[in-house]
Amino acid sequence: MCLLFISGYFVYRLHYIPRILYRLLLTPAFKEGPLAFITAEPSPLSIETPRLHRLLLAYYRILQANRELPRHLIWSLSPLSLLVWTPHLDNGVRLLAIRCYALQSGMGEAEREKIECQVLGQICGVDCQLEYGQNIDGSLIEVDGWIMPVTELQRVRDMREDIVTTQHDYFAVEGDFSLPICSSDLWYTLSLLEMISC
Question: Rounded CA gap, 3 and 10, in Å?
């Protein structure tokens, strides 16, 4: 039961992040979704490729975290479809748009691969470089779009491991010299909770 209490505490603390994102996505700027502006442009070719890489990567991450969010907020698949089927568009953009489309629509892997072959040719046969981020010195980090899902899994795993292994003092205030919570404190709190529930 102590473990559940601790887990509940952490779930409660991490619950604020999705709420903040949800509030942001409810603003008028994102009413039709973060990619809606694409359909208002004369052509997706007029949008800077690095911007599309960043937007689609963020969209991919949102879909990986919560695949129901676009359905709940009624985001159209049209912008993704437009990116997929626009000829002469960057291959990395098209591949990532296909991946996002598949996640949002609930498409199976076989169908997604069929579209990838139809749009890009043989799987892994075409370079699909993605701008994945920046180093501290400002230089770009690029990743092959075909292996981006594996790179994303590694990124998430590394971040989770960092959360577990690095001490995070969320409640420290400058000049505050409070002690960390001991296991005896948790047992005391647990016993109080049990007494209240009886």
Answer: 11
Tokens representing 28 are: 């008028």
CA pair distance 1, 89, nearest whole angstrom: 55
pTM of the predicted structure, to 2 decimals? 0.72
Q: Which long-range contacts (CB under 8 A, 24 or more apart) does 186-189 make?
A: 186/2, 186/5, 186/6, 187/2, 189/5
The three-state secondary structure class of 131 is: strand
Q: What is the pLDDT of residues 12-27, one digit of tens each?
A: 344 445 677 777 778 8
What are the pLDDT digits (tens) for 146-171? 999 999 999 889 888 888 887 766 55
**Residue at token pair 């694409």:** 38
CB 115 within 8 A of CB 72: no
Neighbours of 186 (CB within 10 A): 15
Confidence of residue 112 (pLDDT cuts 50, 70, 90): very high
Contact 148, 98 (CB under 8 A): no
